[in-house]
Amino acid sequence: MIGLGGSMNLRKQMPWQIRPGKKRTMQWTRRDFFRNSGLAAAGLVTGGNVSGEATPCVTAASPTGPSIYEKIGVKPIINCQGTFTILSGSQSLPEVKVAMDEASRHYVHMDELMAQVGERLAELTGAEFGIVTAGCAAALSNVTAACVAGADPEKMQRLPDLTGLRNEVIMPKASRNVYDHAIRMVGTKIIEVQSPEEFRAAVNEHTAMISILGDAEERNGVSLEEMVEVGRRREIPVLVDAAAERPDVPNYYLKKGVDAVAYSGGKCLRGPQCSGLALGRRDLLWAAWLNSAPHHAFGRSMKVGKEEIMGLLTAVEMWVKQRDHKAEWRMWESWLQTISTRLAQVPGVQTRVVQPGRSNVAPTLLIQLDASRIKLTSEEVKRRLNEGTPRIWVPLAHQGAGISIMPYMMEPGEDEIVARRFAEVLSMTAKA
Fold it and tell me: In this structure, is residue 32 part of a structural domain?
């Protein structure tokens, strides 16, 4: 067994009685959530999804009148940018809303709940175990804490004082990003490497963890396979931040031998916005759970409730068994076609579909403006769309190449609205 926080066997040193077992079978299905549920009877779950048919995810229409946000003076957004937390992530699936409502109506022991949920996540994803966290950043913090302190109560209480503990995390320079603060906040020092030689030289007795940003794997300068091999040999866990990536089965990173991979629950999965998913080694993830709330450890402030836990479990169930990913893709392409067709009527506008990388996996529409015919800059178009009614949030393309449209977070019918508003804004100054 790979050591954590020095040379611990976690199964012998867990301070809590509840421990995840090996391959326990749970007779749990989505239908358990819907049975006797008032929300299901009210029609919030579509007939196709309840019957088990694979259909695209469609959120129910909003009620008429001012929204709950407009009543307090906040103007909602049509999200054409993507699964960004600052834009409130994604809209949770109807099935997730039902599950969270049902979960809110009972009390449970949180350790028992996570042990069972971890087993169910393992069944669904093929991972050895899984835990639900308070977002992907919390997963990064909790796993880092587990790598430093394991499940040793005395070491756990010392964090973020890492005196005498392993306190270094090796990370390729290309993987550095603003979110690695979640790793550094535990008290660790990140050691940057750019080549196999630098990586091997950086590994020492102070190394607590090796970590990469999944989206940067090809740019890291050292292969993930080598990092995993060295990590196993030196008993150093390898963690992957894959927040906005697809948690497909079989899991790409777990197949390569990493010890844990972290995802956002409120992005591709369309689970609760304040939830995250960590998959990987059972002992490592159980230690990560013990280092988080409700336990009195470093992650006590990173609380995830029973509602988020069951909501995310439902989202994973939907991802693996119910959602028709090909149908969703066709739907997104049709929305982009609606916008592209409308903009083709505006002189000086060119559009093309761009295929995605690993994160925010959906086709995007690149809109480019001919400055000699459109007397608005991309920044001005973005501002006018944001200030208009309805309010539309679009991202600027990289390196000033125009404007992008990401359909993942759009809702049915919004493609027509976006197409119309875009054409209105651009036509104001377009020259034939």
Answer: no
86 lies in a domain?
Answer: no
Return d(Cα 232, Cα 235) in angstroms, integer: 5
Say whether 417 sits in a helix, a strand or coil: helix
- The DSSP line for 27-87 is ---THHHHTT-HHHHTT-S-HHHHTT--B---PPPPPSSS-TTGGGT----EE-S-S-GGG
Q: What is the C-alpha separation between 214 and 218, in angstroms, rounded?
A: 9
Angle between helices 110-125 and 306-317 (to 10 degrees): 10
Say if 309 falls within a structural domain: yes
Residues 300 and 347 in one domain: no
Encode pLDDT of 367-398 as tens digits: 999 988 998 999 999 999 999 999 999 999 87
Which residues are CB-neighbours of 256 under 8 A, at least 6 positions away?
224, 225, 228
If asked whether residues 412 and 331 sit together in one domain, one would say yes
pLDDT higher than 50, residue 235:
yes
Selection from 359, 358, 265 nearest residue 317 by Cα? 265
Give me the residue label for tokens 């809702």.
Answer: 411
What pLDDT does 16 receive? Answer: 45
Rounded (10°) angle between helices 378-387 and 414-427: 120
- Check residue 430 and give its pLDDT: 64
Give this prediction's pTM: 0.85
- 340, 315: one domain: no
Average pLDDT over residues 70-96: 93
How big is the CA angle at 358 (ends 55 and 400), to the nearest 5 degrees?
110
Query: What is the chain's mean pLDDT, rounded?
Result: 87
**Domain around 261:** 107-322
pLDDT category of residue 34 using cuts at 50, 70 and 90: very low
